[in-house]
Amino acid sequence: MSETATEAVEGVESGVHEAPTLISCECEDVAEQAVSPDGIALWKKLVLIAGAVAAWVILYRMLTPISEWMAYGLIGLTEGSHLAEAIWFFIYEVPKVLMLLAAVVFGVGIVRTFFTPERTRAMLAGRAQGIANGLAAILGVVTPFCSCSAVPLFIGFVEAGVPLGVTLSFLISAPMVNEVALVLLFGLVGWQVAVIYLVSGLALAIAAGWLIGRLGMESEVEDWVYQVEMGEQQDTRGTLTWSERINQGMVALRDIFGRVWLYVVIGIAVGAGIHGYVPEAAMARIMGADAWWSVPAAVLIAVPMYSNAVGVIPVVEALLGKGAALGTVLGFMMSVIALSLPEGIILRKVLKPKLIAVFFGTVAVGIVATGFLFNALNLAVSVAP
Amino acid sequence: MKIQILGTGCPKCQKLAANAKKAVEVSGVGAEIEKVEKLPEIMEFGVMSTPALAVNGEVKAAGKVLSVDQIEDLLKEA
Fold it and tell me: How far apart are CA A135 and CA A281, in angstroms?
């Protein structure tokens, strides 16, 4: 290696050593545990799954009557009182959301067994921009990806000849279009908002990635990235049998559910408080569609907030129910997830400050534009119980 | 036998290293455990997801935290 390259690498190495504990690995939607084969026959597993699905459907349909009975009959709350509203909300939403979460995490866990970062990389390698951005955004949703792997993945993509803009499309959609977030939106707010979130998230990833790609900022990638010599690609997983895929789904379920459920419950508790105690339309004045500045303000407020994206959603639902405008709330949610300081710190290892600024700036503008768009459409969102 | 844990030091990498250490103790196999934390060296292994585990230079798992039992199995195979 030339002297400057060696210095560059050493500079990065010391940077990496200085901040290992800052790297919080956000893998809220990816299983961490490896799967071992077991001796159980496939048909037995399928029977179990069929049984579980049936039980799930039956229980789900009974949630409203059961929760009403518990809140008003069993505990004896007065219908219409603040406390009753809050508690009923909590009793109803917690099992509902947890059941949806379990179903989706299991299903997506199985879908994810068909995708690996290595395969995604192979699919995107050398493709010209445009359609590749679309492909990258969609793959970002289904490829298992943790933010602590962002740097190796970035290097891997660059080495394979994936254009910068395409890589960024992937990096935008992967954390933001998160199936856990989608299921929560679906369960708490309604399928329309979930679909809107999905579509606008993908559109944002595609547009922002493509736009940055057109700016020709390859020189703003840290030099050492281009100098790293990557070994031969390892696809350690090989092809899985369906029995193993089901196991992987179960592992994902235990793993992710186990990490996330408490945040969901806390988030719903906060949402319940808002639901019960904050007066109707209280939010409309500060977060309503008429307050044009509410969208950029919401996006800005969300930047320093990187919480678990999951916990935010019940609050989102309660806000919407109290008259906050859809665009403002969506902008807030996307911003919490997509523009985060930890991610910025991680990306700083591979992107020079100028490119990071352009990256975050473009995504922020895109989110604000999305927020304005949905406010302008003035969609009446009925918050679905 | 040489075990290498590839990762930049995030909690998952530390967990994998701890599991590997335990597996080596439990199985009684004589193995040296090395943590590879520098990115250029990690990339030489061709992995894109950390943490990863390599036995005698060959990558056995990437992007996952293997349990103590699973690592023991790998040690027996090698």
Answer: 41
Please report which confidence band the pLDDT of residue A350 belongs to, taking 50, 70 and 90 as the band edges.
Answer: confident
**Domain spans, chain A:** 40-222+246-377
Token pair, residue A193, equals: 């908002």
- Give the integer Cα–Cα distance in Å for A353 and A247: 42
Residues of A whose CB is below 8 A from B43: 152, 155-156, 228-231
- Touching A: B residues 11-40, CB under 8 Å: 11-12, 37-40
Give per-residue burial for B27-60: e unless 16+ CB within 10 Å, then b.
beeebeeebbbbbbebbbbbbbbbbbbbbeeebb
Asked about B19 being catalytic, the answer comes back as no
Q: Hey, is the C-beta of A258 within 8 angstroms of any chain B C-beta?
A: no
A286 pLDDT exceeds 70?
A: no
Q: Please, what are the domains in chain B?
A: 2-77 (3.40.30.10)
A74 φ, ψ to 5°? -75, -55
Q: Sign of the C-alpha dihedral, residues B19, B25, B31, B37?
A: positive
User: Residues of A with CB below 8 A from B46's CB?
Assistant: 230-234
CB atoms A25 and B12 under 8 Å? yes
**Closest C-alpha among A359, A281, A270, A277 to residue A307:** A270
Residue of chain A whose alpha carbon sits nearest to that of B69: A36
User: How do B32-36 and B2-6 pair as beta strands?
Assistant: parallel
Mutate to test the interface with A, among B19, B39, B48, B67 (most CBs of A within 10 A): B48
To which residue do tokens 């009923």 refer?
A88
**Cβ neighbourhood burial of A73 (10 Å; 0-12, 13-18, 19+):** exposed
- Residue B70 sits at the chain A interface (C-beta within 8 Å): yes
Q: What per-residue confidence (pLDDT) applies to A27?
A: 63
Structure tokens at A335: 């911003």
Predicted-complex ipTM score: 0.82
- pTM here? 0.80
Q: List CB contacts (< 8 A) between B23 and chain A.
A: none
Compute the distance between CA of residue A202 and CA of residue A188 in angstroms, rounded to an integer: 21
How far A221 CA sits from the closest chain B CA (Å)? 16
Whether B41 contacts chain A with CB within 8 A? no
CA geometry: angle A235, A240, A245, nearest 5 deg = 120
Q: Which residues have C-beta within 8 Å of that of residue A357, sequence separation ≥ 6?
A: none
Q: Which two tokens stand for residue A332?
A: 């807030």
Over residues B42-76, the pLDDT tens digits come to: 888 888 888 888 888 888 888 878 888 888 888 88
Name residues whose C-beta falls within 8 Å of residue B78's C-beta, 6 or more positions apart in sequence.
B1, B55, B56
